[in-house]
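User: Hey, quick favor. My workstation is busy. Could you predict this chain's structure for me?
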Amino acid sequence: MVFIQTLVAVTGKENSAEPEVYPRDRIIKVGSNVTFCCVLPAGQTFERMYVTGYSTNVDATKISNRTYALTVHLTQTTSVICTNVKCKARTQQQESTDNGACALIGFYMFAPEGVTASTVNARNVSLEWSWTVKRYNNLNITCQVNVRHGGTDATSEDFGVGLASAVLTGLMPKWTYNASVRCRTMEHSWKWSEWSTALVFQTRGDVPDALDVWMQMKKKQITIFWKMLPDNQSHGHIIDYTVTWAKKTTETERRNTTTVDHNEQRVVLSVDTTDQYLVTVTARNTNGSSSPSTITTPHFNPENFQSGLRYSFSISACTQAAPVLLERGEGYVWEEKIQDGLFKTLTWKQKGSDVEVSWLPISPTEQSAFIQGYILYWSDNNNDDSHNVVFNVSTDLPGATSLRARDLKIGSYRFTVKAQTAVGECGTTSLTVTLNSLTDNLITATFISLVAVFSLLSLVTVVCYRHWACIKQNVYPPIPKPLLTDKWLKSMGGHSCRPLYVDQCPHSEVEVLDIPVLLRDSGAPDKGHVGHKNASFAFTQKGYFNQPLKNPPPPALIPTNVTPALEGLPSSPFRGVFPNPSYNLIMQPGDPPAGSGPELREATCLECDPDGYQPHSGSDTSVLNPTGEETESPMACVFTYVLLPQSTS
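Assistant: No problem, here it is.
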């Protein structure tokens, strides 16, 4: 046996208060020679080093004043958590101190040798191996066997004392495998051994697996089909197939048997399809025949079926319990050609120099055979029959609903669409198409667009005409003209007025309106009232104001004293106010010319701030001159502010 001495370089602590042992917490293979080092603190004296469970007669070697080494041959495995390595020392005060390290000592097993397949069967194999270390035969060993074939692999695990064999199960007959083994001890090993050399073996052959069988019935014949077995199911070379059949009500001794070559995958039985038959098929190789695969033919009476009619059917597997549905489908007993005129909604559309022929999907009730695709034929009607060439384009999609003929010239063509089935082309439907030039198509499209636009405009016009009053009212409502009544100049009637300076309110929500200006001609006589017949008014976007006429009439006189008797005077446009349901606004002239003579009467002025209107005093309002004296120039009555009525109380 070869022993290995392990040397490891470690770094100690310079200012440790107790001895330090290295290496610490190492896993060490049993049978190795290991050297442990003890590093003493400064000022301490070395006493001894030892390994628990080993002889204490081994002396440590002094390496330096503070470093000592102990070499031990590890022959025992760790039976508890770890094996302690101790170092004792004494301080200057003669106090004993010790410290240690933990080492795990175990087996690192060698790989199994001489792995062989002692017993090889069709579906299991026994493997055996040996140990180069005899002591392993007394240890509790766990081994893993890895089996590989193709692109798959599986691992099984066995254990036992001195384990040297394993059995592999669930293998495939006549199949090649690779196997490898590795082991470890159950209690003292921390690592698996290396894998053994791979063993290649092949299982023995066996009878084939059961065949997958199905059938097809046509009038007086029944065709039996089966699937060829792959290598992992044939378990050897297939020699031949055996087919037996008999009526379901007949005894088994009267069965018919036939042998089919290994290259064949079907057999045709000429039997009376009105009876039910029990058919079995087996595969045979050098190891024997497979389990029989059985199929029962249905009771088939041709008189009960119609050709060209689609039937639904289901296939179930017969089990010891209830039948298991395998497949559901549709089919024909006999397919027939589809009658002409299948495409009842055949349409076409020109796309440049191409023509696309379309049709609606064909329902199953219109099919007397399975449609496998469509084909479109076309020919030029402008050519003679002797020079007429037929072109075609096809598709293999049963669900297709259009085909396109490309690169056609201007002219007349005949298009024919046919359905492709197992019984040939059928369902012929034709139409004649005349191709127009692109210019004609553009003119047609332009004309249609113009007609559409004209119709839309006509409709809009009619609608607008019938609802013009409503549209005018909502879009452009009429602006009412101002109405001047005989209350334009109304007597004060004992009411005091509070002028409202609207033009001085920049933050008010009240809209500043243009105020009418009333001018008075100085050359007119004052007769105590204003005549409305000769008054001249002009209206502008800014408001109303009077203008002198080319031949001015007698001037209008402003009454000096407004009394209740004024209501009896003739009506005048200057004598009135705008009607208001809440109150009457009385216009007073403001800012008369200096020296004109009218006396000012105290009034209250409303001013505003951003929070609303607030009253304050200090503004004056003028009244008309009661003397009726004429002035040198027309008097301007500028309504700069609005007077609110005030209670006389």
